[in-house]
Amino acid sequence: MPEPKKVLVVANRTACGPGLVAAVRERAAQGDATFHLVVPAAAHGLHKVVDPEDSGKDESQHALDEALPLLTEAAGRAVTGQIGDAEPLAAIQDAIHLRGADEIIVSTLPRRVSKWLKLDLVSKARGLGLPVTHVEASDEPTADARASG
């Protein structure tokens, strides 16, 4: 029996989004797969320069903690996760080297506000030689976004 495909899921602020949950559910329905979520550490302002290793861990941990149960339900099996490097491409490369991956799902904010799309992350991830699925969040505000302003 073949090993399940290893799917690396990369998201931060969209980790709980309906688009990503639907993409994981759809991929799980296509065949046996395991899923591992990497949430790059969110560095803000001067923290990016002063201490990028420590900044953004709380925000990223919150995203990870909120997303894992939703993605586990969508996948129909336990989804693992970790906080990655603050630089998203480095977070992807680290996860591939440490855990292996057969394919990648990258979830971003909408094009007009996504830093990852401005950095061309999806194309750079494709450059690693694995199939990449890009999930772009809609502009519809989530309950969390409305509550936080």
Verbal overview:
With 149 residues, this protein is an alpha/beta fold. It is built from 7 helices and 5 strands. Strands 3-2-1-4-5 form a 5-stranded parallel beta sheet. β1, α1 and β2 form a beta-alpha-beta unit. α1 crosses α3. The protein starts with a strand and ends with a helix.
Task: Give a short account of the largest sheet.
Answer: 5 strands, parallel
Q: What are the low-pLDDT stretches, counting only 5+ consecutive residues below 50? A: 142-149
Number of strands: 5
The strands making up the biggest β-sheet line up spatially as 3-2-1-4-5
Order of helices and strands: EHEHHEHEHHEH
Compose a concise summary of this entry.
This protein is of the alpha/beta class and 149 residues long.
Sequence-ordered SSE layout with sheet pairings:
Blueprint: E1 5-10, H1 18-30, E2 33-40, H2 47-50, H3 57-75, E3 80-84, H4 88-99, E4 103-108, H5 115-118, H6 121-126, E5 132-136, H7 143-148
Parallel strand pairs: 1-2, 1-4, 2-3, 4-5
Notable traits:
disordered C terminus, 149 residues, 5 strands
